[in-house]
Amino acid sequence: MSRSVQLHPLVHVMSLPFRGSAGTSLLCGPPQCEQHSAFSSDCGVCRCVTFSRDGTLLGWSNGKGVSVVKSSDGSSVSTFDLPKTALMGISPLNNILVTWQPYTKTQDSPQGEANLRLFDLQSGRLVKALYQKKVDSWCPSWSDDEKICVRSVNNELHFYENNDFDSIANKLHMQKVSDFALSPGGQPSKVAVYVPGSKGAPSFVRLYQYPNLGGPTAALANKSFFKADKVTMQWNKKASAVLVTASTEVDKTGASYYGEQTLHYLAVNGETALVQLAKNGPIYDVAWSPSSSEFCVVYGFMPAKATVFNLKCDPVFDFGTGPRNAAYYSPQGHILVLAGFGNLRGQMEVWDVKKYKQVSKPQAPDATHFSWCPDGEHIVTATCAPRLRVGNGYKIWHYTGSVLHRFEVASGSELYEVRWQPFPDGSFPERPIKYQAAPSELGTTQAPPTQAYRPPALRHLPATASSKLHEDEPPQDLRPGVSGERSLSKTALKNQRKREAKKAAKQESKPEPEPPSDSAPITNSQSEPSSGDPETDKKIKNLKKKLKAIEELKEQQAAGKVLQKNQVRRFRKTQT
């Protein structure tokens, strides 16, 4: 296996490393995507690859050891003799390297060896060796300034300050803390903690501001709820609010294979709310806008709905229904992609968030990975193992739907991971949105309009409205002032409905006008001529019924419909 890295002297040139069974490579681009060898060959299979948060350092583990190099020129920073490393990470300021390997016990060491190691990245010195048996929440969480570091240990949180891991600066003692999420940004740091319910008591999430961790009165916000086996907590970029997706493994009503999900909102000012969703079904994805002022939820039984909410949890824009299960905001927050991956056909809807106008609708069949380039102009989709072991590869797109670069692994090889090189915030300013497809030699994959199948015998006839299993709901702008009803206040809407109901009742109560005196009401006996003989009238009625049925058969035959044998016999009998 040979590893290759793409280097470029210009500032803000993106890199895209990808690892697979054939090795690790680094692509330079877009828009021009090229490769050239810059590292020495290495026959080991790469287990993991990671960038530092600012993108200046690149690290990987190949089964022989761990290497960290500079992304700019490929020069070595540190190497570590850790052949069993399965996961690795770098602290926000590039001071600490964290490595994790599976926990094992041996005869020489019945307690097992410490499998979570923290190294000083510049000197290579081992700072601390810790035990971390579970892979869940394996990596400590740092604040952006590295003044605070948090670990979950035996259902409690341990806080370290200034990367001093020899002494625990603070602890959060609570009953069975199952999960936590540290806020992004610098000081003051905040932490969201989740405690599952037990013995009929509800589960709850609380927000704390470090170092005030003592008791429930110190909590900035508290939200309790039932029906929660696990939760996912997401801070917005400004660290002002958290979205909590609570889910159960089993839906006791039997309506869904995915269990039940609810979405809760907590703000650091103490406000909490249950986000009301307009359609029943699972919650597939929740995504914060980088502006921290709104979030998008994809939810409901297929075809799923997607709705943008503001910080009051009021709906702002409804994208209607469609085959989707994921939402991705661009790093600048000006574009939103709604996509349907996994068991869906890979349709992507690219939306201008400011105008709520659709930009493009490309398709990426069999995609298992999606991520935005830091420039907010390009995206990558990939088909990776072990989710799919055939047809592995990746594509680099412009958001207008143009495919700029395509790579497919060789037969018998697999692709494991693709990721963009990160850059500090503000490196790429927001650009005006284009609606015309970017030029590309590979073209676009815009989905052509699909039509219902029509048999050859009917294709010369005018098309009729086809019936669908699901009628897709159109997008709807729910912002105040856009639609007339939304612009009215609650009192005005109430009064308007009262007036409309009163007007309708008044019209119904009006008596119907009586017919003129010289005209008598029409009866059944006058509507049809009568022969005076009931038996004859009955025969005439049956004859008219048969003639009407024959006329309908003639119309169906003229429209191209194939008649049944008994219908053909009846039709021929009337002709003779």
Automatic annotation (TrEMBL):
Domain of life: Eukaryota
Pfam families: eIF2A
Keyword DNA damage: no
Region span, Disordered: 465-543, 557-576
Residue ranges, compositional bias (Basic and acidic residues): 502-513
GO molecular function, one term: tRNA binding
Composition bias type Basic residues, residue spans: 567-576
Swiss-Prot/TrEMBL keywords: Coiled coil, Initiation factor, Protein biosynthesis, Repeat, Translation regulation, WD repeat
Record function comment: Functions in the early steps of protein synthesis of a small number of specific mRNAs. Acts by directing the binding of methionyl-tRNAi to 40S ribosomal subunits. In contrast to the eIF-2 complex, it binds methionyl-tRNAi to 40S subunits in a codon-dependent manner, whereas the eIF-2 complex binds methionyl-tRNAi to 40S subunits in a GTP-dependent manner.
Annotated family: Belongs to the WD repeat EIF2A family.
Protein name: Eukaryotic translation initiation factor 2A
Species per Swiss-Prot/TrEMBL record: Amphiprion ocellaris
Gene assigned in the entry: EIF2A
